[in-house]
Amino acid sequence: MRCALLRLAIIVLSALAGPITHAGEFKHALIIGIGQYSEASQTSGLPGVPKDMENARKMARAMGVDNESIVELRDQRATKVNIIAELEKLRARVQSGDRVFIYYSGHGTRYGTGGKCFEGLQTYSAGAFTEADVLSEDDLAKYTHPISLKADKIITFVDSCFSGGVLASKARSLVADLGIRSKYNPTSSECSVAVNDRSTRSLTPGLVRLGTQSENFVQIAAANYNEVSWDFPQLGGLATHSLTRCLLGDAEDLDRSGAVSLEEVRQCAQQKVDEAMKPHTKYGRFSSTIQVRGSRNLIVVQEPPSPVSPEQNTKPSSQESPPKGEGIPAEAPNQLAVSLQSQAPPPPVPVSSGANPSLVTIDTAPERQAERVSASIATLRDIYEQRNGRLKIEVSAPKQLTIGKDPLKVSVLSNTEGYLYAVMLGSDATSFYLLFPNKLDLDNKIRANIPFTLPRPGWSIKAGGPEGTNQILFVVSQSPRDQEIFPADSGSSGGPFTFSMTDLAARKRLIDFFIGKGIQGQNGQIAASLISIKEVP
């Protein structure tokens, strides 16, 4: 039995597997595992921990961490002093835009102070284990917060037990017979029973109190506050095992955005945990509920590798082929609801590629159109969810425009200098358009705290229909994006704005443009704002 109830920030390293390559940024991992405690500590061993550490290394590698950047503390090396020292080394090494992964597997504990019970990690002690050897939640917040102030994303995954007395004595006997062990060791008798006190079971309050932005971390727990999770001798922690498999390829792109989010990884892992525990429910051993807090939709794997083993992935991936009606020839015309005018402005004329409209092969059934719109909006939202909480962007724009009459004017204010991008999903939802930079205005450098107005002299945008809602994603990145990555469909040469049809392949490439291969420069961190503008008659 293992009770992974401490919700530490799990620094999610956005990655392809091949990992997403954030050019110039660095990734770090600290993996801690204690399966063998000293005899003097009178603490039972945990035979599943070696497997947990193996899985943690697999997760780190899938997240893009080089072997040389993975630090491991195992058994007698994992003392409180050594763990704190490694966290301090991380603080010194991490630079702006870096990403970090921290993992712990071992006993958790509860201890009493001032009439209250607190939770923490049991570190290795050569002598008798005392409260001085506990790495408390306050300690963890104290030493991870300075890292979070610099890192783009910080992920700490703790798989251990922080409650006792949850199982009835009969169930405990069954667990012992099977060799499944509780990853829990109380330091005082008054804290040896579980207390449903959520306030002591989450690192979030400590991190938020210290000023950590919720967009910059993710918290994962293997169980809810009043549940236990399970440790199998051959698999290690069931939640860790399941999350690893899903991260390495079993998770599916459920919303068809073009990427697999952490929430989709969680859903995949939860299914595996539930299936594995079904045979044991008659003995009172129930499935735990994997918890994810913080940046739940962080993209951990954009293009996962082949599943770990065929028997674990008998269901075809939803990414293998688009559904009927998704395929759209590249010759599709530009249907952007905008107008263009030159520097010596004639009357605005609609942007058009001149391609043959009959070549558009879109399934116009309402349910298919609704699915396309939902998936395309999910793509923009996935990109938006990758933002760094310390980087802010404010966009002032009208809520609606009258078709054929109102021009679009927006003002963008960023607290960081960088490069400004604006991508629109048109009101017809058939194409993404790179509104800025464009063929008439390539200089997209933006300065910090100075308003940036669009459109600039030389071009304009006017509402051109159809009636509906435009979704516009504004991104300020500290490194430029490679515009060759943005998929320019045939016909876009007829207008100033590069466009791409909203099929599944294009959704994947758009995500790659912002958080994958399109990144050029020092790091991939972004500020982002996603707005809606209605077009009305």
What do these coordinates show?
The protein is of the alpha+beta class. It is built from nine helices and 25 strands. The longest helix has 19 residues. The N and C termini lie far apart (62 Å).
List the helices and strands and how they pair.
Blueprint: E1 27-33, H1 49-62, E2 70-74, H2 80-93, E3 99-105, E4 108-113, E5 116-122, E6 134-136, H3 137-148, E7 153-159, H4 169-178, H5 204-210, E8 217-221, E9 231-232, E10 236-237, H6 238-250, E11 260-261, H7 262-277, E12 291-294, E13 299-301, E14 339-340, E15 349-350, H8 366-384, E16 393-396, E17 400-402, E18 410-414, E19 418-425, E20 431-436, E21 445-446, E22 452-454, E23 468-477, E24 498-501, H9 504-515, E25 526-536
Parallel strand pairs: 1-2, 1-3, 3-7, 7-8, 17-25
Antiparallel strand pairs: 4-5, 5-6, 8-12, 9-10, 11-13, 14-15, 16-18, 18-22, 19-20, 19-21, 19-23, 20-24, 23-25
Helix pairs in contact: 1-6, 2-3, 6-7, 8-9
Brief write-up:
The chain is of the alpha+beta class and about 525 residues long. Helix content is about 20%, strand content about 20%. It has helices at about 50-60, 80-95, 135-150, 170-180, 205-210, 240-250, 260-275, 365-385, 505-515; strands at about 25-35, 70-75, 100-105, 110-115, 115-120, 135, 155-160, 215-220, 230, 235, 260, 290-295, 300, 340, 350, 395, 400, 410-415, 420-425, 430-435, 445, 450-455, 470-475, 500, 525-535.
Count, helices: 9
CATH topology of the largest domain: Rossmann fold
- What helical percentage do the residues reach? 10-25%
Poorly predicted spans? 1-24, 162-184, 186-190, 193-208, 304-364
What is the number of strand segments? 25
Radius of gyration: 26 Å
CATH architecture of the largest domain: 3-Layer(aba) Sandwich
Strand content: 15-25%
Which CATH class of the largest domain applies here? Alpha Beta
| Main pleated-sheet profile | 7 strands, mixed
What's the N-to-C terminus distance?
62 Å
Average predicted local confidence, pLDDT: 75
- Oligomeric state of this protein: single chain
Name the overall outline: elongated
Q: How many domain units? A: 2
